[in-house]
Design a protein that fits this description.
The protein is α/β, with parallel strands linked by helices. 27% of the residues lie in helices and 24% in strands.
Length: 230
C-alpha cells in the first residue's frame, strides 16, 4: 500500500482492559471530561471508522455532539460531521439506526458478498456508499488505500477489539489514546483493547509513550502512545 490516512485509535477502557461488559451493549466507561475530549477529537478528523461487531451491537452515531465544534468545522469549509465508515462482513444493520440516520454525514460501508444484493440496494437507497469485496474477509490495507484515495487523511478508530488487533497486525496504527476508567468489568468474553487471534511471544507490538496524566476528578487516566515508526 503506497498511501493511507494517519490513523488514530481512541478507546475508553477499564483498568483490566475491557471495552465493554460481557453483555456487549455499550457500557458507560468514559467520564464527562473524556466525552468532551472525544468530541473534540472527532471534530478534528476526516473520518471515523468502527468494526462490524461495534456497528451491529452498538449502532454508534459517530457524530460531533457540540454545536460549537460543528460550527467550527463548517467555518473551515468542512462537512458538519466526519465521514462515517464501517468494515463489516455482513452489513445487516438497522436502516433506521443511528449510524445511518444521525447527523448529516457521508456513510461508507466496506463489506463482502455475504451481504445480499438486496441489502446492498437498501443501504444505497438509504444514502450509504457500499463497497463490496469478493473475498471472505476484508483487507484493511485495501480499505485504507480506498479511504485515502477519497481524500481522507486523518482517520479515527473507535473500536472494536478485533478491528484494532488487525490494525496492529498490519502496522496501521500511528497514535493511540486510551482513557482508563477506575472500573473492573472482568469476564473472559468481554471485549478488550486488542482481541483477534493474538500475537506470539516475541511478536508483541511496541509503542512509544508520549504522555500520561490524571485526566479528571473521577480517577480516570489518559495515556497517549505513538507508533515506534513515527
Amino acid at each position: 500500500m503506497n498511501s493511507r490516512p494517519h490513523v488514530i485509535v481512541n478507546v475508553a477502557m477499564t483498568i483490566d482492559g475491557k471495552l465493554d461488559t460481557i453483555e456487549r451493549k455499550g457500557a458507560t466507561i468514559s467520564s464527562g471530561a473524556d466525552k468532551q475530549r472525544v468530541d473534540e477529537l472527532r471534530a478534528s478528523v476526516d473520518a471515523i471508522l468502527v468494526g462490524g461487531k461495534t456497528l451491529l451491537s452498538e449502532d454508534p452515531s459517530l457524530t460531533v455532539k457540540s454545536a460549537d465544534l460543528r460550527s467550527r468545522r463548517l467555518a473551515q469549509g468542512l462537512e458538519e460531521n466526519p465521514v462515517k465508515v464501517s468494515v463489516v462482513s455482513q452489513a445487516d444493520l438497522n436502516l433506521q439506526g443511528d449510524f445511518m440516520t444521525a447527523g448529516p454525514a457521508r456513510r461508507l460501508i466496506y463489506t463482502t458478498k455475504r451481504t445480499l444484493p438486496e441489502q446492498v440496494h437498501k443501504l444505497e437507497n438509504a444514502g450509504a456508499q457500499v463497497f463490496v469485496r469478493c473475498e471472505e474477509s476484508i483487507d484493511l490495507r485495501d480499505v485504507f488505500q480506498s479511504l485515502y484515495d477519497q481524500g481522507i487523511q486523518i482517520l479515527m478508530i473507535e473500536g472494536g477489539g478485533t478491528l484494532i488487533a488487525g490494525l496492529f497486525q498490519f502496522g496501521l496504527v500511528d497514535e493511540l489514546f486510551a482513557y482508563i476508567a477506575p472500573q473492573i468489568f472482568s469476564g473472559a468474553s468481554a471485549p478488550t483493547l486488542a482481541d483477534g487471534d493474538g500475537f506470539l511471544n516475541g511478536q508483541a507490538k511496541h509503542l512509544h509513550l508520549e504522555s500520561v496524566s490524571k485526566f479528571d476528578n473521577e480517577g480516570g487516566v489518559l495515556v497517549h502512545y505513538t507508533s515506534q515508526s513515527q
